[in-house]
Amino acid sequence: MTSPSEYVQTHRAEALSELRELLRIPSVSTDDSLKGEMARCASFVLDRMKKAGLDATILPTGGHPAVYGECLHAPEKPTLLLYGHYDVQPPDPLNLWRHGPFDPTVEGEYLVARGATDDKGQFYALLKGVEACLKTLGKLPINVKILIEGEEEIGSPNLTSFIRNEKSRLACNWVVIADSSQFAKDVPAITYGLKGLVYLELIVRGPRKDLHSGSYGGSLANPANVLTRMIAACQGPFGRVAIPGFYDDVRPIEDWERREFEMLPFDEAGYQRETGVPQLFGEQGFTTLERKWARPTLDVNGLLSGFTGEGAKTVLPSTARAKFSMRLVPDQDPEKIARNTRDFLREIAPPTVEIEILSHHGAKPVLVPRSGKGVQAAVKAYERGFGKSPVFIREGGSIPVVNTFQAELEAQSLLLGLGLPDDDAHAPNEKFRIEDFYRGMVMMAALIEELGR
Amino acid sequence: MTSPSEYVQTHRAEALSELRELLRIPSVSTDDSLKGEMARCASFVLDRMKKAGLDATILPTGGHPAVYGECLHAPEKPTLLLYGHYDVQPPDPLNLWRHGPFDPTVEGEYLVARGATDDKGQFYALLKGVEACLKTLGKLPINVKILIEGEEEIGSPNLTSFIRNEKSRLACNWVVIADSSQFAKDVPAITYGLKGLVYLELIVRGPRKDLHSGSYGGSLANPANVLTRMIAACQGPFGRVAIPGFYDDVRPIEDWERREFEMLPFDEAGYQRETGVPQLFGEQGFTTLERKWARPTLDVNGLLSGFTGEGAKTVLPSTARAKFSMRLVPDQDPEKIARNTRDFLREIAPPTVEIEILSHHGAKPVLVPRSGKGVQAAVKAYERGFGKSPVFIREGGSIPVVNTFQAELEAQSLLLGLGLPDDDAHAPNEKFRIEDFYRGMVMMAALIEELGR
Lengths: 453, 453
What we know:
The structure is a homodimer.
Chain A lengths: L3 H7 L1 H12 L11 H18 L2 E5 L6 E6 L7 E7 L19 E3 L2 E3 L3 H22 L5 E7 L9 H7 L1 H4 L3 E4 L11 E6 L1 E10 L5 E2 H4 L6 H11 L21 H9 L4 H8 L12 H7 L2 E10 L8 E2 L2 E10 L5 H15 L5 E10 L2 E2 L5 H14 L4 E5 L4 H10 L2 E5 L14 E3 H19 L1
Parallel strand pairs in A: 3-6, 3-7, 7-17, 8-16
Antiparallel strand pairs in A: 1-2, 2-6, 4-5, 5-18, 8-15, 8-17, 9-13, 9-14, 10-12, 11-13
Helix pairs in contact in A: 1-4, 1-15, 2-4, 3-4, 4-15, 5-14, 13-15
């Protein structure tokens, strides 16, 4: 009898060709003119789920539909839910692509296309792993559900209510999320920590319209001057955050964790070269990985005010805006941090301007327990798929759905990334390593077998 | 015999109709596609100078041509040069105009069109004043030259070298510049002080490309964070400038000047209403007019970094830019201030980013002596044209050509504004008060007579 991993090896070309077909569909969820392509993409995924041997259906949401498949023939056995998304980021700026973003092209060991790693390549590896089990084992040793949503790149606005409404359909013990990455090439990783997020926008308003900075300067507050001072006041030296109370609930990094981070093959010089900065930087007393993974931050994400064209215009701007976000670590609470930040900004805002503070996003920080059957099985599955044990890592990003699965389904997330840190998700020439696509399928099939033992 | 002022009264309709014709020409100097219109506008002005009775010609510059006219039949008598510009600002944003910007329309007591006050309406009043003298007096009691350039709105890039090359042609005792404004409606003013200017742009560069703020935040310096801190560091409380040495050469406001400012009918509440700010603001120990006219300032003119669209994007920007300018008062030296500012920024820039500082503009502050024959004649001319004595005022803006006339021609500038502070020069629905257009012609004719006494 063929094993699932043998099935993967003999179906490599077929799987790659199907993935290329999937990548050819421009399923950009934020682009209203591509609604038809979104529907076409959902149909394609549905069709592939059915061909894999799952009972599958399209489930409407308030926005783009989700695609759902299941194979529930293991009574008394645990249930695994696989989560991914079929929508992709817009491909702009188009001129920086080496070829069409929706014309998937093999370049050396990589497949290059929008969505290659985020998230079509990754979720398709999971689906093909399930297929390999179904085609070779006849029936699965556990129950498997798979949910592929279509709104991740627009912030999954309907996902929480969808999960709440479909609680019994989605009930499960673990959720596999393959939307993160390995630590490095050939260093597979299980992510057990994610930062939380508070994303705010400060708008400072002064005069009713832009004024001449010569005629009016000095006699009324310039909103751009005020904005720079207010945002500067949120910052302490060396990347510290100066908002009162910000560090109150920060859980210190454990000694064992520091030692683990230190043992990771992190190439500091390579990281600096990759980013192109003259020097790395951060909170004193912490290593780069500690800063990235386990210390909270404040980053300005956007600034806009006045004249921004070439050359000079002597304008005293009517308005100034700063988008900024704070990444949180356990046990910081996004609502409390947002409230503190708003209070602080209102307190330091001079009475000579009006301010408005918009809230864009929030997410709680996450630490997934590293013990338990799910994680143990995932370690073995990685060993079988990638030929080596995974390292345990944290990430600076946020995956809000992890909190939702925990809160609504009481399911533990397994963050099993197949991508690489330099895959350029969201950027031009996004790529996915083809070998890791195949390894991911084997890993997925192995995970089903391990959980079924 | 008809007097010049009677001539003006009987030729009002004709003058207004000519001005409307002039305003119909879209002479936008910054718009390359309107080069033909620039040439057509120069021809129109040339033709009107000739019809007024001047020897006139088009003079090429490195860019848009200047139009020059003269009437030099008063040997042994002094010479007056009139300066203005026939180019105008771009009319954008078009949708805010009540009618076409180049479709001059009478609205109540105003003529509304791009260039109405800046500077076509103003220089055309001067030209018609000269015409009134020539048509009624036969010959002028002094020598008159008139120079109307075509590049003022793009910073007069060729004017200094042009004036240097045409030194003997342009030689004069006084220069009338009608490109400022009255203090208020029916409060005509002679401007004797202008602020200087240093306009810089700070560019902070960090990572080679925009990065994900979750994955990279905290481990490298965010250029937008750094920019806000650097610009904030240039600012002290209450609009003070915190750059070391900035106030070293500031000439204190004289007691007599403070008393004069105080006597002006300045409507503080109206000024606040007009600008729409919740509260006025500025350096402690100074009145609003003192802050506007006689105290140096620092204003951010533009901010740009990262994601500036609607909503949120968790980007750690590669670059952040701030355009900012300092308005200077006597005896601050723009070169010294620019040097100090650059030194200060380089000193406070952290080694974790790269910075670049661009210089956009510079101008020396100006104080025109208020004694002397020119100013005395101007006072009398205002009394005859406007029926009341002018007040003496300063301005927060800069008119760099004033320095050039002083340096190259050793000529004293007479800043005789005909516009009003709320004429919306550079903004949609720019306007010019028609009555002041006629008064300006009478004033100009009277000035020639007064200087000829």
